[in-house]
Specification:
Length: 251
């Protein structure tokens, strides 16, 4: 099944983007080729760009605190394991403290690294990182793999607390939704959302054998999903077939 996730607000949209970037960075750092490490650095610059929002750190801290209060309200409930509850709240506290201890903007120290900033200004130019433009970077690419990996680990370390906090928040959000099997009749599903619940994420799973791509549009009142089929020229056209899929709404 192919999983599609659609955020209901800009905050969750940013979290999803960050998680994708952190996953890519983690995979690229573990590889040995200098080209993989080049793309690890370009991914790091993307993370810096997304993380530059002044309110991001505050948003994550507020969400961690909100989740802690929510789960503290379950204390005394006989259906809830106190041990599991304590463990989860401890995780939230740990991530809150680690993130809260970071001074200033996340990754601010990297902007003081002349080597990285020279590279960052050139990667946006097609072919801008050639050896005649950045000889120091060309030399770095010829360092031993272990040396390059160590540098990448050091440069990405300031984002560790943010990565872990975002991962936990998204995990908890995803677990809040219950999957249900639905049908897009004649290729379309339109569903009104219940009042009084602030949904934050829609998750959709579809069988790749169907050859269908969903187009999703959501707001606090309505979900609209159109099923599209890709033609040989790459153009997506709406299908009129009945299409089964799984969907969950996470609040």
């Amino acid at each position: 099944m192919i999983l599609y996730e659609y955020p209901f607000n800009e905050r969750i949209r940013t979290y999803l983007r960050l998680q994708q970037l952190f996953r890519r960075l983690g995979q690229l750092i573990l590889r040995e080729d200098a080209l993989d490490h080049h793309f690890a650095l370009t991914t790091l610059f993307e993370i810096m760009e997304v993380s530059s929002r002044s309110e991001l750190k505050s948003d994550v801290l507020k969400d961690l605190e909100r989740q802690k209060q929510l789960f503290n309200a379950y204390r005394g409930n006989p259906a809830i394991s106190e041990q599991a509850l304590d463990g989860l709240i401890h995780q939230l506290d740990e991530h809150f403290e680690a993130l809260n201890q970071l001074n200033g903007k996340i990754g601010q120290s990297l902007t003081e690294n002349d080597f990285l900033m020279a590279l960052r200004s050139r990667v946006v130019i097609p072919g801008g990182t050639c050896e005649f433009d950045l000889p120091a970077y060309h030399a770095w690419q010829h360092f031993p793999n272990s040396s390059r990996s160590a540098d990448l680990q050091t440069w990405s370390a300031p984002f560790g607390p943010l990565s872990q906090a975002v991962h936990l928040l998204l995990q908890m959000l995803r677990e809040s939704g219950a999957s249900q099997k639905v049908m897009a009749t004649t290729g379309q599903l339109q569903q009104n959302l219940p009042q009084g619940r602030a949904f934050q994420l829609l998750r959709l799973k579809i069988d790749p054998a169907l050859g269908i791509t969903p187009e999703i549009s959501c707001n606090r009142l309505l979900v609209v999903i159109r099923m599209m089929r890709q033609q040989s020229d790459g153009k997506l056209v709406a299908t009129t077939d009945d299409v089964p899929f799984e969907m969950s709404l996470c609040a």
